TrEMBL record:
It comes from the Bacteria. The keyword Membrane applies. Keywords: Membrane, Plasmid, Transmembrane, Transmembrane helix. This is Cyclic nucleotide-binding protein.
Amino acid sequence: MTLPDIVGLIGAVFYLTAYALLQLRVLAVEDSRTTLLNVLGGICLIYSLSCNFNLGSLVTQVAWLFFTIIGYVRFRMARTRMGG
């Protein structure tokens, strides 16, 4: 197993952990730990894909990362406007 494979697996664990914790209601979507797990998962998987390229997977990972960051920024901005 190569380093990119290991990093990709770690990324998958981050994604799956975030998803599981959301589904089990341990974390909420608004929790920064959920965002962190998704961002780390995306970065790890994009790194892995840079060594073992797959266009479909790369597009999916970049989109997932983009939507995660946009959602988090929008949440933080709304919270700031509300005084929280």
